[in-house]
Design goal:
By secondary structure, the protein is an alpha+beta fold. It has 2 domains: 119 residues, Aminopeptidase; 146 residues, Gcn5-related N-acetyltransferase (GNAT) (Aminopeptidase, 3-Layer(aba) Sandwich), CATH 3.40.630. It contains 11 helices and 14 strands. The protein is globular.
């Protein structure tokens, strides 16, 4: 472990980390700088650069290591892992492509276990805009009810809306009693941090939905690359029937039609969230694994 000099993740690591992330041949939303930075207050990330890669250590709620970030191609993985982790290591949230590459290279020294709760749901943007077919009929019906029943307007986000998003988030959090839930409180703090550092986090794309002059929903996403958009946060006020179906569809239709794929992140093993994500008919999953290296 002496070969890696870890330090706490800061905004100053942004550009160097993003360059490493850009080189990954499979980019999971977990590993985007915005995601790491937003949730650092909860996970307490350490970061280190070594062997031409960026290494991530999570310190809360328990110490763990994630997959190294950078170019995974043409690496002497046995040499790298032996030097850094001579006694072996468990890596969490390892994207499928690098997991299978390591398994293929190192054979029995690598064991893999599916980490289903961390699989990311990837949808075709066109499908979520059009909502065609019997299985998505209920979604489209709720969307149409919202369009018909409310005097609504959709807006792209500017700096004024960033402030208004925070105001709506505070309303949403009081409604959901975030202070009574560690998970919701951590998410609330992550959202506030992204809003606070908005101008220093390149790639953010957001949309807001109003009924008359009241913001009733917002989405905050990130352009992962030219083809894929990540949805980091999406909130709606429950008094407005169909509000989630509306912000989901309108954000993609008005602000993200240039993308082919939308990654709506994982379900974290929450059955209700899993059912909701599955109900939108994902095109595929970005699968992740627990990876054990045993020299």
């Amino acid at each position: 472990m002496d070969k890696l000099n870890f330090h706490r993740l800061t905004i100053e690591d942004r550009d160097r980390y993003r360059e490493c992330f850009r080189q990954c041949s499979e980019q999971a939303s977990d590993y985007s700088f915005i995601n790491l930075f937003a949730w650092d207050h909860y996970r307490h990330y350490d970061i280190a650069f070594g062997s031409g890669l960026c290494w991530l250590r999570v310190n809360s709620p328990a110490e763990s290591y994630w997959c190294p970030v950078g170019s995974w191609i043409d690496r002497d993985w046995e040499k790298i892992l032996s030097e850094i982790f001579p006694e072996g290591i468990l890596l969490e949230r390892v994207p499928e492509r690098i997991a299978l590459q390591l398994k293929g290279s190192l054979g029995e020294k690598i064991s893999l276990e599916e980490e289903r709760s961390e699989w990311e749901y990837v949808y075709n943007v066109k499908d979520l805009i059009e909502l065609k077919g019997k299985r998505l009929h209920k979604k489209k019906n709720l969307l149409n009810q919202f369009r018909k029943n409310y005097d609504w307007s959709y807006r792209d986000v500017d700096l004024t809306d960033v402030r208004m998003i925070l105001e709506m988030q505070e309303i949403w959090c009081r409604w959901k009693n975030c202070d009574g839930s560690n998970g919701l409180k951590a998410e609330h703090d992550a959202i506030k941090k992204v809003l606070e550092y908005w101008e220093k986090l390149p790639g953010l794309i957001a949309g807001t939905l109003f009924v008359q002059e009241q913001m009733v929903a917002y989405t905050i996403g990130e352009a992962l690359d030219e083809e894929t958009l990540i949805i980091h946060f999406e909130k709606g006020l429950g008094d407005y029937k169909g509000v989630y179906q509306a912000i989901n569809q309108l954000f993609l239709e008005r602000g993200a039609v240039q993308f082919q794929w939308v990654n709506r992140e994982q379900d974290m093993g929450n059955e209700g969230l899993r059912n909701a994500k599955m109900s939108y008919e994902p095109h595929h999953f970005l699968k992740k694994y627990l990876l054990y290296w045993k020299p």
